[in-house]
Every structure is written in C-alpha cells, then in structure tokens.
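pinging the channel bc i need a second pair of eyes. not urgent but kinda urgent?? the chain im working w is below, pasted from the shared doc
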Amino acid sequence: MILTFGLVTVSAQKTLKADATATVINWKGKKIGGEHTGTINLKEGWLTVDKKAITGGEFIVDMTSIKDVDIKDEKMRGNLEGHLKSDDFFGVEKYPVAKLVITGSTLGVDGSVIVKGKLTIKASTNPVEFTAKSSVSGDVTIWSALVTIDRSLYDVRYGSGKFFPNIGDKAISDDFTLDIKLAVK
C-alpha cells in the first residue's frame, strides 16, 4: 500500500474591501501667505494584505467631490471649489476620477509599512511611495497615511512656479497633501 500526502500551502493573504462611507480623505494645498484645506471622497477600492504587508490594491477617488472646508463665505468657497474642478486644476469634467494602484510594500519602523504604487490624476500616471500604519477595531482596519503629491507631475499647472517662473507672490505650492484614514474590512 502506498500513501501519498499532498503539501497544502495556506496563504494568509486577504482581500479587504474599502468602506467608502467610513473612509476620510482630507487635502491641504499651500500658497504664499496661506493654505486651503478640504475633503475628497473615495468612490471604491480594495486592499490585499498578507500578514502585515500590503501586497496590492486599487482605489478610485471621486474628483467631482472636492470640497473646501476652511472658507466660511459660501460664495468664495464655491469659487475655489469650482476653480479646483476646472481645467486650471483637476479638470473633473473630463477626468472625474483619480486612481491609485498599490504594487506592494516593505516593512517600515514601528509597525508601519512603506507603500509603493502608481497614481493617476488626469491623464498622467506616476510612481508614489508613502508610509502607512494600521489600527484594528472589531472587523474594521483603518490604514492611516499622509501622502505628499507633486501636482506638476499630473499636468496641474495653475500658479506653479515650475511652469510660470515670474509668478512671484501668486505662486501656489506644487506639493499638496492627502491625510488618509482608509477603512477596510
């Protein structure tokens, strides 16, 4: 009698679906003498995790949802939001979504991971890298990250000193940040 035993490999890899309603994305843009802050909504996404490493994922951000939260005057706030949605900035009529594709990660310090991926805004795709940390509450995991993006890489030129060298004190920083609290389960 011959007995054969097969080797079964069990992967700890899990695919987690993003909860768009529980996810929070805050943005900050700076200019000489000030800054603006606001929110933008996640439309959908998923994340693949193996133990503590992020192995993949894809996220779609609804660019039409850009909101300012720091301007109290409703008309001025509406003007800024309209300008951010215009072709001067993100051109949301033609490009209503942005996409982040996660390609992997490496372990960082203090339980963090260094996430690598490709970000598409408008018609431009560029590599991104940022640090993320997770916390768990019940069946929900929150991945927190502060991501700095150089808008000039995505053809967002308005007020950029890289494209308009004589702009002086009207310059807007090319870098903007996204403070992300991604809820997945």
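so The first strand starts at residue 13 and ends at 17. and Strands lie at 13-17, 24-31, 34-50, 53-68, 97-107, 113-121, 124-137, 140-150, 172-184. — does that match what u expected or am i reading it wrong
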